Description:
Elements (H helix, E strand, L loop, with lengths): L7 H7 L3 H22 L7 H52 L1
Amino acid sequence: MTGPNLTEREKELLQFRKADFDDLLNSAAERGAERVLSRLGLENGHAARDIGELRELLEAWRDARRTAWRTTIKVITTAVLAMLLVGAAIKLKLMGGSQ
Length: 99
């Protein structure tokens, strides 16, 4: 039965109140979210804590990576400066020794 073939009573039964429709949508959204969390293995009620811990771990990894790059740059810079100093010392010693 569709469209014009419906009686007034059938039309009334098919109409949802906005509040009922919102409740239905919220219920469907919650069930969908629970299903997704279950598939991700986060259904035990600790999903927020687990995700928080994962974010902390990711932030710690980023900090470690950033620190490693900074340390690498400092080591390279120090090595280059040390080589320049050694080169300057050798050059000055050779020049000073020949006079």
